[in-house]
Amino acid sequence: MSSFINRITRHFAPSSSIGVTSEGGGSAAASGTTEMATVAAGCFWGVEHIYRKHFKDYGLIDAKVGYIGGDTKNPSYSKVCGGATGHAEALQITFDPSKVSYRTLIEFLYKIHDPTTLNRQGADAGTQYRSGIFYHNEEQKRIAEEVTKMANENWWNNQISTAIIGATDWWDAEKYHQKYLDHNPGGYECPTHYVRKFRLPEGYAQDKPAEAK
């Protein structure tokens, strides 16, 4: 019951907690030996939490929750939840490719949510909860398509609905959403956000370094 109440009341966080949003890549653009990955998989609290937990010692430099894929500027959480802006709740990861590959991060995406439920994760319904991969260059697009094909054929019974599209303007979510489950350990977690024990198919080319355990 407490999780349900937390989920409902997330719309009503005090305005004093609101952070500054930014256009076109809320966190600093990747440069040098760092790269960026942007994914959506339902409620961004759980997506951020699970990526941070599993890759904190394996190449994850930073992770921020925010909004992408919409058609308005400076979207607020309440407007995104209303479905009027077209944005998805998403996670933007800055990572060290010498420690973890983009391919591994996308494979992990298909292990930690249900990509078969269009515009829904668990009880959370709406286009803001859609599954998506927002690529930043053609190489990421190629990898995302390869991983999606593998996951669709081997893990999800050819039912994946995840959209693969080019990254558009990124807006950081309000400050109180960042690391939400670290600050609120009893907060709402979507029941679809957990690591599934899928195995890579025989002959599938896994990038190195190896995936975090």
UniProtKB/TrEMBL annotation:
Residues 37-190 form the Peptide methionine sulphoxide reductase MsrA domain. GO terms for molecular function: peptide-methionine (S)-S-oxide reductase activity. The keyword RNA-binding does not apply. It comes from the Eukaryota. GO terms for biological process: cellular response to oxidative stress. Its EC number is 1.8.4.11. The keyword Hydrolase does not apply. One of its GO terms (cellular component) is cytoplasm. It is an enzyme of class 1 (oxidoreductase). Keywords: Oxidoreductase. It catalyses: L-methionyl-[protein] + [thioredoxin]-disulfide + H2O = L-methionyl-(S)-S-oxide-[protein] + [thioredoxin]-dithiol; [thioredoxin]-disulfide + L-methionine + H2O = L-methionine (S)-S-oxide + [thioredoxin]-dithiol. Coiled coil: none annotated. HAMAP family: MsrA. Belongs to the MsrA Met sulfoxide reductase family. This is peptide-methionine (S)-S-oxide reductase. The lineage of its organism: Eukaryota, Fungi, Dikarya, Ascomycota, Pezizomycotina.
